[in-house]
Amino acid sequence: MIAEGLSYEDQLQNYQLAYQLLKRKLRTSYVSQLIKSISLPEIRDIHRSIHQGESPSSGLLPAIEAIPQVRESMLYISLFASLYRSASQIDIRAEMDVSAIIFAWDFFCETFPNHVRERRPYGKVRPANFSEAWVVAQALKIGLAAVHYCKSCHGDHIVIYNSKFSPTCQICVIDQLRKRGNTPGLR
Ligand SMILES: [Zn+2]
Q: Which domain of life is it from (predicted)?
């Protein structure tokens, strides 16, 4: 997305962007996909120098359909997606808006402090880390997920195609289950 053969100033801006992404612990392969002018070994070095020698995470990248394990997660992901869409001036179904992802993620973290799960994201508050937030934004761009308006609750809700939750408003489903007193459905 960012071409090579850059001016010194452009390269400094790329380092600034890499710093912003790595500070939030975006997986280095995503940083490398975005910023072509900095090598992957150097991106890993930047990660280690920001995080006191800690190596970047490796292994499988998060898959959008596997992020919500429990229905309540859909509520949090809907909120994140809605924040992201509101923060962006562009069509997020056509492009990823990196600064809007950063803004929405920081806002989300302020709203739910202490939820960040870097390596073992098993909580219900999702996205659990910045890489999952990135994957949500990516899914909205490539059509694996979409934000829809719900006529019943008048809010935005996310639909994640191929996830275990039906492409309807899960916020309303949670509400119906709660009214029925069917709390096990919430887990
Ligand atoms: Zn609804």
A: Bacteria
More confident residue, 64 or 2: 64
* Ligand 1 geometric centre to CA of 171 (Å): 5
Closest CA to 170 of 155, 182, 180: 155
- Ligand 1 is an ion; its neighbours by CB within 5 Å are 150, 152-153, 169, 171-172
Residue 97: per-residue pLDDT: 98
The first and second tokens of residue 98, run together, are: 């990196």
Q: For tokens 């809007």, what's the residue?
A: 100
Structure tokens at 119: 């390596």
Q: How far is the CA of 175 from the centre of ligand 1 (A)?
A: 9
Q: Say how far apart CA 177 and CA 7 lie, in whole Å.
A: 57
Per the prediction, the chain carries an average pLDDT of 92
- Please list the residues that pair with 145 across neighbouring strands: 160
Q: What pLDDT, on a 0 to 100 scale, did the predictor assign at position 187? A: 42
Specify whether the CB–CB gap between 150 and 172 falls below 8 A. Answer: yes
Tokens of 100: 């809007």
Burial class (CB in 10 A: 0-12, 13-18, 19+), 18: buried
